[in-house]
Amino acid sequence: MKGRIQVVMCRLCSTGGGVLDVDALLRIASDAPNVGAAVVVDRLCDKATVASLAAQAKDKEVDRVLLLTCPKNEVSPFVYQTFVKKARINEFLIDSIDLNNEVVLPHRDDAQGAQAKAEGRLLSSISRMARLQPLERKTDEMRTKNVVVIGAGISGLEAAGQAAQRGLHTVILEKTGREVKAPGVVMPESKVVSMKGEAGNYVLTIEAGQKRENLECAAIVVATGGDWSDARGPLADKCRDAKPLYRLRQAVDEDRVPTGTVVIVDTPDPKGTRTKVQDYAWDEALDCAMDIKRKSPSTEVYLVFQEMRVSGMREIAYKEAADLAVRFIRYDRKNPPRLTAKDSGRLELTDLAQGEAVALPFDVLAYASIAANPDNVAIANALRIPLSPDGGVRRGSMQRGPVATPRPGIFVCGSAMFPKSESAARAEGRAAGIMAAQYAGAGKTEYGGSVAETDAEKCSACLTCVRTCPYEAPFIGAAGKAEIRLQMCQGCGMCVGICPSKAIDLHHYTDEQIAAETTTYLRGDF
Fold it and tell me: For burial by CB atoms within 10 Å, which of 221, 321, 403, 444 has the most?
C-alpha cells in the first residue's frame, strides 16, 4: 500500500533563522512521488491554520501527513487530533520531522550542508511514509480500580494519599505489624507472593500471616524503602575506628561534634569490588559536613568522592559547603584512596581534578554504606520486573515516566530504586501515586499500534524471543510457534532484532520501510 501524503512545513519551526531555504524544500516535496499536497504555513500551532490544513487533506484525498515542525512532544495535541477527527487520518499515519534540532542546530554555520541534510531527511521520510500501513489501538476494560502500594514508609504513604485523593481505592501491604494510619485498607504482616494477569488487570497472591488470598488491582506502586547499613569494605576494614556516615550524623545531631580533621569517603570499598556508591550518600554527606562546620568551624572536613550526585536546588549546597570551607577531593576508581598502613590515620589518594597526590591525616574517618533492600529480589520476582545492578527496582524508559517500571501499570518510588533523602522520597511517592491514579482511573487499557507480529511459517520455536523480551510478550502458542501477547508488547523491537529466523516484524519498522528510508537518504548508496 502506497498512499497519498500531505507535507506541511511550519516556517516558524523550520527556517532556523534563515539557515534553511523552506521554499526549495517545498518544491522538492511537491515533486516527490506519492505527495498529494505540499504547503508552508507561518505557524502550525494555530487552530484556524490546522483546520484549513485538515480540510485540504480531505479535499485532496490524502491519507497520511508529514509535518516539518518542532519536536513531536512540543506540538500541541490538537494538531494531531484535528487531522484524525476532521480529515479521518489514521493516527499512526501522522509523522513529523524536527528540522531545527536534527538539522539546523548541528549545521548552523554550514547552510549548504544543512540544506542538503534537510532535503535528504525530507525525501527519506516521504519514502518511508508511503509504505506505512494504518494501525489500530485496542482497549480492555479494567475489572477494578484498586491501587496496591507495597510498603508503608515515607514514599508509600505519599503514594497512597495521592491515589486516594483522586478517588481510587488503595490497599497498602506492610511487612511489619506496626500500626499505620493511611487511607484505604492497610494489611499488616503481608507480602506479595506472585502475580498473574495483564496490565490494568493484575491479580496478586498475597500472604498475610498464615493465610493466602488473591487481590485484583489496576495499578501497583513499589515503595519498599531502604536504610543505612553497617556493612564494611576493604578501606574501612583497615581502620577499626571508621564509622558509617549515619553514626557520624547521630553524633553531630547530639552535639558530639568531632574535632581535628574529618574525612568522609563515599564508600567503604572505593574499588567497587564488594559495594556500590549510592546516590543518597551525597545528600546526607553534604548536610553532615556543613553541620560539622557550623557547630565547629575549626574542624577540617573533607569529602572524598568519585561522583557527587545531588540534583535540583540541592546543587546550591555545593556553594554553601564551599563557603563553610568544606573541601572536596575527587578520585578515580582505578586509583582509589588507601591507608598507608592499618590504623595509620593517614589517607593517601590522587586528586583527579588537580592531578596531584594528596595525603590526608585524619582524626575521624566516615563512609557511606547503604545496602539495597533485601526484599527487592522477592518482590521483583513476584511482579516480574527487573532489578538494577545495585539491587534496586529498575525504572523503565523516561518516555514512560520518571517513576514507571518497564511493566505497564507498575510504578516505583523512593529507596526501592536506590536510597534517597526524605524530601526526594516524598516527591517520588507523590509522583508515583498520581501516575498510578491516572492509570487506574482511566478504567481501560490501550494496546496495539506499533507492536510486534510473528510469521509462523518462518518461526523455528527456538525460544530466543521468549527469553529476550523484558515485557514477556512472546510465548509459544498451541501450534508450537511463537506468538505475541499484544497487551504486553511495548514495541521495543528487541525480539525483531534478535530473532535468528527473521520471523518477527515490528509494525511501522519493517525491513522494507527502514530500507526504503535509508536507501533514499543515502541516494541509493546502501
Answer: 221
